[in-house]
């Protein structure tokens, strides 16, 4: 396992890091900790977790593995996060993470889940960054980082709001969205920060829907994991690429792929970028030419979510809706699109010539289907609950009747 220098910190982190949000059986803490330890055995020294991952068990799982990793005397790094909005809320969550992770200091502590440009200024005004500074001065945090889903030219200004506090960034970057996210990675690297990529495998898009992306594989690739890892690790800005492992088998499979990977030359990397775009004619490549919407609809986010609709052939309406709600922070799709005047400016500037307004309508329909399915499920549960109650009441009534007869 090769290592790279984490920005200006001087820390040496493994090229592959473990993302601890995909454990297949989080309630089985000891069993899942074995996957963490297996990654450690194979040279991974960067472990990324967060409160609430895996039914709020992820930090516990990593903490269990940390006990064993400490015994080896080998260096490793623990990264976790907090998404709280007020300074007074930082310390309680930090102390909870320290206890669960079995460490005295968090190596990389992240200001978490910055999806919208207004969020960091609000947290800064509420004293969040001040609390991070205090915790670092007290030795509870070694390095302060930021985790973001912002893209294009929004990342640089956001990083500057940290006034030099941030030493690393966690950003969702992969071969499918590099148009949107690579500028942010570059902005961080230019500021001397370490760059860790999440969603390295496209959040499962590349591996779960491999048939759509076979043409992107390079000679000698056994699977798209090879292709995806090579792409991220060939980017000079990237320090560590996270991969989420469900179990020990996933660890070995991904790290076997890593060992096969040879870094691309700058020229071959540019050729691959062109191939990705050429192979994505029906996909949004997140170039963001549609950014100047007169009514400020974040069009690129809707079109990125629509990519999830394409790979599921429109048969899973929950796929794009989940992406919009939980990745992009857009809970009500139809309401968010209600301001659209159908001026078609976005379609005129789209480099892919995508039918954006038509896709808006498809996403609205998907949302209605998801809501209808949720309502149906709710009604079925209520009916089941009522039937259970009636059954219990009937049983109790019969029991009282028998007792009365016996008396």
Account of the 3D structure:
- The chain is an alpha/beta fold.
- It has 2 domains: 3-275, Alpha-Beta Barrel (TIM Barrel), CATH 3.20.20; 281-407, no CATH class.
- The protein is 51% helix and 13% strand.
- It is built from 17 helices and 10 strands.
- It has an 8-stranded parallel beta barrel, surrounded by 5 helices.
- It is globular.
- The model has no long low-confidence stretch (mean pLDDT 94).
Which features characterize this protein?
407 residues; alpha/beta; eight-stranded parallel β-barrel; 17 helices
CATH class of the largest domain: Alpha Beta
* Rg, Å, rounded: 24 Å
Query: What's the number of structural domains?
Result: 2
| Class from helix and strand fractions | alpha/beta
How many helical stretches? Answer: 17
Low-pLDDT runs of 5+ residues are none
The amount of beta strand, in percent, is: 5-15%
CATH superfamily heading of the largest domain: NADP-dependent oxidoreductase domain
Q: Main sheet?
A: 8 strands, parallel, barrel
Number of strands: 10
CA-to-CA gap between the ends?
Answer: 79 Å
In N-to-C order, the SSE pattern is EEEHEHHEHEHHEHEHEHHEHHHHHHH
Strands in their spatial order, largest beta sheet: 3-4-5-6-7-8-9-10
């Amino acid at each position: 396992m090769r290592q790279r220098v984490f920005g200006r910190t001087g820390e040496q982190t493994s090229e592959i890091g473990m993302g601890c949000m995909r454990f297949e059986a989080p309630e089985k803490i000891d069993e899942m900790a074995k996957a963490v330890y297996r990654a450690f055995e194979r040279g991974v020294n960067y472990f990324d977790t967060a409160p609430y991952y895996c039914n709020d068990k992820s930090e516990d799982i990593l903490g269990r593995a940390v006990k064993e990793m400490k015994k080896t005397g080998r260096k490793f790094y623990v990264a976790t996060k907090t998404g709280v909005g007020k300074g007074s809320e930082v310390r309680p969550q930090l102390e909870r993470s320290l206890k669960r992770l079995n460490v005295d200091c968090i190596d990389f502590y992240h200001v978490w889940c910055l999806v919208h440009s207004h969020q960091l200024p609000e947290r800064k005004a509420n004293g969040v960054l001040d609390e991070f500074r205090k915790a670092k001065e007290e030795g509870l945090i070694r390095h302060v980082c930021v985790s973001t889903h912002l893209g294009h030219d929004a990342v640089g200004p956001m990083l500057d709001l940290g006034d030099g506090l941030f030493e690393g960034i966690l950003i969702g970057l992969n071969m499918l969205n590099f148009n949107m996210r690579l500028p942010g990675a570059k902005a961080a690297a230019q500021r001397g920060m370490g760059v860790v990529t999440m969603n390295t495998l496209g959040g499962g898009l590349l591996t779960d829907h491999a048939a759509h992306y076979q043409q992107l594989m390079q000679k000698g690739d056994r699977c798209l994991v090879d292709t995806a890892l090579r792409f991220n690790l060939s980017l000079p800005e990237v320090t560590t690429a996270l991969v989420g492992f469900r179990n020990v088998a996933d660890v070995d499979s991904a790290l076997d792929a890593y060992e096969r990977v040879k870094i691309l030359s700058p020229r071959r990397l540019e050729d691959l970028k062109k191939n990705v775009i050429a192979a994505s004619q029906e996909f949004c490549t997140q170039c963001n030419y549609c950014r100047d919407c007169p009514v400020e609809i974040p069009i690129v986010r809707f079109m990125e979510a629509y990519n999830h609709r394409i790979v599921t052939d429109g048969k899973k309406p929950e796929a794009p809706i989940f992406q919009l709600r939980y990745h992009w922070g857009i809970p009500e799709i139809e309401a968010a699109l209600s301001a659209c005047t159908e001026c078609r400016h976005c379609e005129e500037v789209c480099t892919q010539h995508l039918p954006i307004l038509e896709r808006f309508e498809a996403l609205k329909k998907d949302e209605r289907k998801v809501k209808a399915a949720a309502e149906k499920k709710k009604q079925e549960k209520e009916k089941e609950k009522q039937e259970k109650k009636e059954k219990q009441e009937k049983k109790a009534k019969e029991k009282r009747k028998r007792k009365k007869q016996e008396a």
